[in-house]
Write a structure and sequence with these properties.
The chain is mostly helical. It is 85% helix and 0% strand. It has a domain at 53-139. It is built from two helices and no strands. It has helices at 15-84, 88-135.
C-alpha cells in the first residue's frame, strides 16, 4: 500500500463563533459562581438559624428546670408544713394557701416559658428572615 496520510483540511474557526463560544463559557462560569455563592449563603443561614435555635432551646430548658425545681420544693415545703399542722382547720388553711400559691406560680411559669419559646423561635427565624430580605433586596 502506498504511504497515505489522512489529513484534515485546515479549517479556520470564524472569529464570531469563537467569541460566541468564549462568551457562553464565561456566562456558564458566572452562573456557577452565583449558584455557589447562593448555596454557601444558604448554608450559612441554616447554620446561624440552628445555632440560634440551640441557644433558645437551652435557655427554655433551663427555665423549665428552674420551674420544676421550684414546684418540687414547694410540694416538699407544703408536705412538711401539712405534717406539722396541729388542727384540721390549720391543715385546710395550709392546703388553700398552697393551692393559691401554686396556681399563681404555675401561671407565672407558663407565661415565662411561653415568652422564652417565642423568643427562641424568633431568634431561630431571624437569620433566615434577614437572609431572605438580603436575597430579595427587601428592606
Amino acid at each position: 500500500m502506498a504511504d497515505s496520510k489522512f489529513e484534515l483540511p485546515g479549517v479556520e474557526v470564524p472569529e464570531i463563533f469563537r467569541a460566541f463560544t468564549e462568551k457562553g463559557v464565561q456566562q456558564a462560569k458566572d452562573t456557577y459562581a452565583r449558584f455557589k455563592a447562593a448555596a454557601e449563603g444558604t448554608t450559612d443561614l441554616l447554620e446561624d438559624s440552628y445555632s440560634s435555635a440551640s441557644k433558645g432551646a437551652a435557655e427554655f430548658n433551663l427555665k423549665a428546670l428552674d420551674a420544676l425545681r421550684e414546684n418540687v420544693n414547694a410540694a416538699f415545703d407544703y408536705t412538711r408544713e401539712l405534717f406539722a399542722a396541729k388542727t384540721l382547720s390549720e391543715a385546710v388553711e395550709l392546703s388553700s394557701s398552697h393551692v393559691r400559691k401554686q396556681f399563681e406560680a404555675l401561671s407565672a411559669q407558663a407565661k415565662d416559658l411561653s415568652e422564652a419559646a417565642q423568643k427562641a423561635a424568633e431568634a431561630a427565624a431571624e437569620p433566615i428572615k434577614a437572609g431572605m430580605a438580603k436575597s430579595f433586596n427587601v428592606q
